[in-house]
Amino acid sequence: MNNKIIGIESSVNPGVIKIILNHYSVMYDEFYILQCSKIHSKEMLLPEDTYHITVDGQYLRDVAQSTVWELVMYIYPEGITGSEIGTYEDFLESECNTCVIYYDCGYLEIYSKDEEHLFAMHKILSRLDTDELTFVTEENFDRTAMHL
Description:
The chain has 148 residues and is α+β, with helices and mostly antiparallel strands. It has a domain at 12-111. The chain is 27% helix and 31% strand. It contains four helices and seven strands. The protein has a seven-stranded antiparallel β-sheet with strand order 3-2-4-5-6-1-7. A hairpin with a 3-residue loop joins strand 5 (98-103) and strand 6 (107-112). The chain is globular, with a radius of gyration of 14 Å. It starts with a strand and ends in an 11-residue tail after the last strand.
């Protein structure tokens, strides 16, 4: 392993995930959501069980208007069918570009194969209500699975 930046992690105000989801909804066309728990809004009440769904940017913006407690989202290139990713090695071997993991209504992790994307997301997060914003490298990476 080396000191290559592979992700960022931070404790965040729950409103930050709304900004991040809106940001991604503009950047990409399609998202594969592995898990999304306890989302409530006037228009929808999604199951708290784990589910797999491919959604578009508008759906993601709708989710951002809800209270998100848990989210695992994979971003694939356009036209690639998404699927669950097990380990970091699976992530590296997959066609998935970015993995967003949000849990406990305040802890955010973003992993990407593109360091420039991570620097851009770090810059966005540094201007928001975050705490302990750090880069994750291959040396300090300790996640055993790329999901909750």
